[in-house]
Amino acid sequence: ILNVEQSPQSLHVQEGDSTNFTCSFPSSNFYALHWYRWETAKSPEALFVMTLNGDEKKKGRISATLNTKEGYSYLYIKGSQPEDSATYLCASPNSGNTPLVFGKGTRLSVIA
Amino acid sequence: NAGVTQTPKFQVLKTGQSMTLQCAQDMNHNSMYWYRQDPGMGLRLIYYSASEGTTDKGEVPNGYNVSRLNKREFSLRLESAAPSQTSVYFCASSEVQGRNQPQHFGDGTRLSIL
């Protein structure tokens, strides 16, 4: 099974701080990288799907980059707000048409 | 537009009891999935259905069975519940099972087995 790792496991930042965290995956046989946002007591929601090396995606204050050659993706949050508090999951498929394998997530807490 | 609907939201079972978790999606998606979420373990795939009429095992299938009843519905059955199956269960769907397809999740079923 594909090994998708996320770091750090948890993160506490002050309101207004910018932050980033990492998703690592095997660089060989790469197919896609997904990011999801998961608020407590809710269900995961898709943020981004990236497939090409060098891809950058942005949604509001959240952006993501992808480096398939070295096997990592960064998720950035600019000017963190309390409502950004959530667990952020990344996932990648084993092959082109197999289900996603999820990392264990980075739990972000933004302190007002 | 409800998206992915799971029932029930909460359930308590005794060891050895059986139970079926229901999942339905109204997005005309072809692929559906069942995950369990345990502390420190992330989301682990139990079973999936790439398309109507097919089902396949995921990472942790033991103790579970599934039925893809039609395109909309994908149920998960615990034949003889065990305390190790205490977890939060999520159903998800995607348009097709492809690398570019984001998954849409239900709200989860919190299951406790005593």
Describe this structure in words.
The complex is a heterodimer of chains A (112) and B (114). Chain A is mainly beta. In chain A, 0% of the residues lie in helices and 53% in strands. Chain A contains no helices and eleven strands. The radius of gyration of chain A is 13 Å and the shape is globular. Chain A starts with a strand and ends with a strand. The model of chain B has no long low-confidence stretch (mean pLDDT 94). Chain B is 0% helix and 51% strand. Chain B is mostly beta strands. Classes of the chains: A mainly beta (112), B mainly beta (114). At the A-B interface, strand 5 and strand 10 of A face strand 5 and strand 10 of B.
Mean pLDDT of chain B: 94
Major sheet attributes of chain B? 7 strands, mixed
Shape of chain B: globular
Give the ordered list of helices and strands of chain B.
EEEEEEEEEEE
Task: Work out the strand percent of chain A.
Answer: over 45%
User: Which blocks of ≥5 consecutive residues of chain B have pLDDT under 50?
Assistant: none
Number of strands of chain A: 11
Helix content of chain B: under 10%
Task: Compute the number of helices of chain A.
Answer: 0
Query: Mind telling me the C-alpha Rg of chain A?
Result: 13 Å
Beta-strand content bin of chain B: over 45%
Tell me the Rg of chain B in angstroms.
13 Å
Q: Tell how many strands the DSSP assignment of chain B holds.
A: 11
Low-confidence stretches of chain A: none
Percentage of residues assigned to helices of chain A: under 10%
